[in-house]
Amino acid sequence: MVKTMKWLTAGALCAAAVGAQAQVNQVRVWAAACANCHGTEGRALQGNEPLAGKDKDELYQKLMDFKSGRKPATIMHQLSKGYSDEQLKDIAAYFAAQKK
């Protein structure tokens, strides 16, 4: 019985780790859409705003402002509307965690 519980616990931990890894990979997929303008992992080329290492709350607020139309843009207002608020929060956190 004890061995069975250990295996079940180990299995549950492995499943949780796989689920967490899948979530990280999904956020990377969403963030990849930003690479054309903001560079790979948010390290933009000259002339575009870098996102790597910025404050996640500020990034999220900018994304929400684009989505609502409060902040004018040429394309960001369209792109941001393609994501849920939670997805935008995850994207902001992803870029904030990247090194400058």
Automatic annotation (TrEMBL):
Keywords: Electron transport, Heme, Iron, Metal-binding, Signal, Transport. One of its GO terms (molecular function) is heme binding. Pfam families: Cytochrome_CBB3. Residues 14-99 form the Cytochrome c domain. The keyword ATP-binding does not apply. SUPFAM superfamilies: Cytochrome c. Gene3D superfamilies: Cytochrome c-like domain (1.10.760.10). Residues 1-22 form the signal peptide. The keyword Secreted does not apply. Transmembrane segments: none annotated. It comes from the Bacteria. This is Cytochrome subunit of sulfide dehydrogenase. The lineage of its organism: Bacteria, Pseudomonadati, Pseudomonadota, Betaproteobacteria, Burkholderiales.
